[in-house]
Design goal:
By secondary structure, the chain is of the alpha/beta class. The chain has helices spanning 15-26, 45-55, 70-75, 77-97, 135-155, 181-195, 215-227, 245-256, 280-283, 293-309, and strands at residues 7-10, 32-33, 59-62, 102-106, 158-164, 166-168, 199-203, 209-210, 212-214, 234-237, 243-244, 261-265, 274-275. It is globular.
Length: 316
């Protein structure tokens, strides 16, 4: 890459993309290219082709995705597989066709099998069945990362992928049904505190173990990977630490200031019983997480309150 690369960040208005843009600019990159959904429909191959042929970026960080929690994935599987597959295939191919030499594809650790050995190594990919509640999303992301790998192998372009664990932070989606677990908990406990509710009920048994990473740590990892001359085809990005959903709920309640009872609802699905990523591969390249869960939750709640007061909160 040249000394002042033009970098296209796809999905810059989302939680991940906005964090990546912040990190790039903090790192001194003064040529960040972005497009809103209205300006560039990534599901349209013609629109994507025209964009790449016109802009010809030096690198792409692909953070665009249709995302959601268990409820959204289970309710809209057709939209999840179509939109994510279309965006990935169009972007990877048209970037290559336009001569873009570098492409970092961001996915999720939900690409791994439901019962993968813990912590999950990158080699676990496609070794057994996926988690049914997010299979559509996972299949689309697997296709995207495989495209990057195959284009790198066949054409010699530096296309590679990173799979983040569960993310949270500024610009998260706080929809009461379609969001991921941590932002959903922040909103529910905040509203319970505001209303004076005596209890909050969380989905499932509360026993599943999950790993969480602040989105600013992910952004640092993405920019780090883009600086490597020979990055691995695929790396996990996570905190390397896990917590049960019930314990997480208590941590969020404490952060928000809710002192009522926390109840579980075993009639709701738990999802994957445990999901901890092995991050030794990316650690070996020189990156490590910096933001603790306690500090991250305080930061995330402060961002939530700021977005709520400015009426800029995402709830889609």
């Amino acid at each position: 890459m040249n000394s002042s690369p033009k970098i296209f960040v796809a999905g810059h208005r989302g939680m991940v993309g906005s964090a990546v843009v912040r990190r790039l600019r903090e790192s001194g990159c003064d040529s960040v290219v972005t497009r809103t959904r209205d300006q560039l429909d990534l599901c349209s191959q013609t629109a994507v082709r025209d964009f790449f042929q016109t802009e010809r970026p030096d690198a792409v960080i692909f953070a665009a995705a249709r995302v959601g929690g268990i409820h959204a994935n289970s309710t809209y599987p057709a939209e999840f597989i179509y939109q994510n597959l279309a965006m990935a295939t169009h972007a990877v191919h048209e970037a290559y066709a336009a001569g873009t030499p570098r492409f970092l594809f961001l996915g999720s650790t939900c690409i791994y099998p439901r019962l993968a050995p813990q912590p999950i190594e990158e080699s676990s990919l496609l070794t057994s069945e996926l988690e049914p509640t997010n299979e559509a999303y996972a299949l689309a992301k697997i296709a995207g990362l495989k495209m990057c790998s195959f284009y790198r192998r066949q054409y010699g372009v530096l296309y590679h992928s990173a799979m983040p664990t569960n993310l949270y932070g500024p610009r998260d989606n706080y929809h009461p049904e379609n969001s991921h677990v941590l932002p959903a908990l922040i909103r529910r406990f905040h509203e319970a505190r505001e209303s004076g509710a005596e209890s909050v009920t969380i989905w499932g048994t509360g026993s599943p173990l999950r790993e969480f990473l602040h989105v600013d740590d992910l952004a640092a990892g993405a920019v780090h990977l883009l600086s490597l001359e020979d990055p691995p085809d695929l790396v996990n990005i996570g905190s390397g630490q896990e917590i049960s959903i019930l314990d997480l709920a208590q941590r969020v309640a404490n952060t928000v200031g809710f002192s009522g009872e926390i109840k579980t609802d075993p009639t709701k699905p738990d999802g994957t019983p445990r999901k901890l990523s092995d991050i030794s591969r990316i650690r070996a390249t020189g990156w490590k997480p910096e933001i603790s869960l306690s500090a991250g939750l305080e930061s995330a709640y402060a961002s939530f309150l700021e977005e709520l007061s400015s009426e800029s909160i995402r709830s889609v």
